[in-house]
Amino acid sequence: MKKIDKKTADAYFRTRTTLIVIYLIIGFCVSYGVVLFAEPLSSITFLNMPLHYYMGAQGAVLTFIFLLFVNAIVSDFVDRKFGLLDLDKEEENESGKAVNK
Amino acid sequence: METQFLVSLTLILATFALYIGIAVFNTAKKTSDFYVADRGVPPVFNGMAIGADWMSAASFIGMAGTVMLLGYDGLAYIMGWTGGYLLLTFLLAPQLRKYGRYTVPEFIGDRYKNDTARLIAAAATIIISFTYSVGQLAGSGVVIGRLLEVNTAVGTLVGVVLIAFYSALGGMKGITWTQVAQYVVLIAAYVIPVVFMALQLTNNPLPWISYGEVVSEFTTLDQELGITEYLVPFTEGTKWQFIALMFTLMAGTAGLPHVITRFFTVATMKAARWSGAWALVFIGLLYLSAPAYAAFSRFILMTQVAGSQIDNLPAWTQSWVDTGQLSVADTSGDGTLQWSELVISGDIVVMATPEIANLGIFVIGLMAAGAMAAALSTAGGLMITISAALSHDIYYRSINPKATDRKRLAVGRWSIVIATVVAGLIALNPPGAITQIVAWAFALASGTFFPALVLGVWWRRANGPGVVAGLLVGLTVTLTYIFLAKFGGITLLGIIDTGAGIFGAAAGFLTNIIVSLSTKPPTQQTVEEVTDLRYPEQLKYENGEVWVKEKAE
C-alpha cells in the first residue's frame, strides 16, 4: 500500500460534499421551493400548464434525473482528477466482477 | 369475454414462465449469491431491477387515479417518490456500499457496535416490509380477480404460490434478472395505452408533451361545472400537509430496507451512483406518465361521459359499473348524467384506459401481465429482505453464529415461504386501503431508518445508545402521530396521518444527537471506519493516514 497525503484525501472529500450540497439545494428548490410559492407561480404558463403544476408533474422529476446523472458524471471526473480511477481498474468496475473474488 | 380471458391468461402465464425460467437458470448456490447476487450486476440492469422492485401494484394501478382525484395535491406522490432517490443516491447508497454488509440491520449493528440496535433494526425491517407486502398481495389479488374473472381470494393465493416459489428458489440473483424482465413487461404495459390515448385525443404520440393541451382546458370546464379546480393548489389539504407528505415519501424511500439492499448488489461506489441515476430514469418513465393518464381520463369522463344521455353512455362504462368501481346513477332524474352524479374509484383509471381507447384484447392482456409484474416483483424483493433480516441478522448473528452456509440458506428459504403465506392470509382480508397501508410503511421508514442511516454515515460522533434511543423514539412518535391523527382527530398544521414521517424523522434525528452527545463517544475503531466512508474504495483510512490500496488484495 502506498500512502497519499491526508490533505489530498480531505480535498477530495470536501469537493464531493460541496457538490452534493449544491445538488440537494437545487433539488429542494424545484420541489419544496415551488410548493411554497405555488400560488404566485400559478400565473406563469409552461407547456400549456400553470408553472406550479408543470413543476410537480414533470419539472421536478426531470431535474432530479438530471442531477443524478450530473453527479455520476462529475464524480467520475473528480475521481479521475484525484488519480483514483486508473484504466484497468475502471474496466473491472464496468464488468463488475473484479471485486470480492 | 371468453377470448379476453384466454388472451389475458396466456399473456400472464407466458410472462410468469419467463420469470421463473430466469430464476431457475440462476438458482443460487452460495450464501452471498442468495442475498446480494455476488455484487456482479451492471448499473443499467441494476437500475431496471430497482425500478421493478420499486414500482408496486399501488404505483401501477393506483397512482394515476390518485392524481386524477386529487388534482395538484396528488403531485406530492410524484415528487416524493422520485425525490427519495436523490436523498438515497447522494447521502446513503455509495457509503453503505463501501461499508460492505449484506443487510441494513447488519450495517446499523456493526456501524454503531450495538447488538440491540441490530435487533431493533431487524424487527423494524420485518414490520415495514411485511406491511408493504400485504398491500402488494392484496393488489395482485384484485388484478388477477378482475382480469381473469375469478374470486379475489383465489387471485391472492395464486400470487402467494408464485412469489414463494421463485423467491425461495433463486434468491436475489434470480430476482435481480427476473426483475429486469418484469420491468420491461410492466413499463411496456403502462406506456403503450397512454401513447394511443394521446394519439386519439391530441394527435400527438408523445403524451408527456401533449397532455398540457388537455390540462389547459380543465380550468374552464371546472368553472362551468362549479367544482373544485384541478389545477388550483391545496384544495384537498393544507400546504403543510403537502410538504409533510412529500417529505415522508422522500425520506421513507431513502430508508426502505428493500430498496437500499439493491445498492449492496453493485460492485463499487461508482456503480452505486450510476445505478441510482439509471433507476430514476426507469422509474421516472412511469411517474411522468401517471399525470398524463390522469389528465386524459378526467377529460374523457368530463366530456364523453358526463353530460351524456343516461341510456346512451359509452359501452366501456358498463363493465366498470358492474364491478362497482364506477357509479352513474341519474339521481336528478332528468335523463342526463351530470358530473356530480358520477362516482369514480381511482383504481379504474389505468385499468380502464385500454377499453376507453379501444385498444383491443391484446393490450388489455398486456396490462394484466404488467400489473402482475409490478405486484410480484415488489413482493419478491420484500420477501428477500424479510428473509435476510430473519435468517442473517437474527438467526445467524444472534442465535447460531456457527451456522453453515447450507443451514442459513435453508433458514432463509423457509422464512420466505412462511412470510409469504402469512402475508397472503392477511391480504385475503386487508386491514385497510392499500395506499394507506403503504403510506404508513413509508412514515415508519422515515422515522426509524432515515435518521439512523444518515447520522451513521455522516456523523462520526453518533454512538450505540444514541441510535437505540433514536430508533425507539422515532418509531414511537411516528406511530403515536398516525394514531392521533387517524383516530384522535388531533392534527398539527393540518398534517394528517400520511405526513407523520416528518415528525418521526425530526424526533429520530434529535434523540440520536442528544443521547449520543450525552454518552461516551464511539471507539477509535468506529471513528476510523466512518471516516473511511468519506473516500472511494480505492482508498483506506487508518490511524489518521490515507492509503491507496494495491491491486492485488
TrEMBL record, chain A:
Residue intervals of the Sodium symporter small subunit domain: 10-83
InterPro entries according to UniProt: Na_symporter_ssu
Annotated protein name in UniProt: Solute:sodium symporter small subunit
Automatic annotation (TrEMBL), chain B:
Transmembrane feature ranges: 6-28, 49-72, 78-96, 117-138, 150-169, 181-201, 240-264, 276-296, 359-390, 411-431, 437-459, 466-484, 490-515
UniProt entry keywords in alphabetical sequence: Membrane, Transmembrane, Transmembrane helix, Transport
Subcellular location: Membrane
Main location: membrane
Membrane topology listed for this record: Multi-pass membrane protein
Pfam families referenced in this protein's UniProt entry, alphabetically: SSF
UniProt keyword annotation of Repeat present: no
Keyword Nucleotide-binding: no
Family (UniProt): Belongs to the sodium:solute symporter (SSF) (TC 2.A.21) family.
Name of the molecule in the record: Cation/acetate symporter
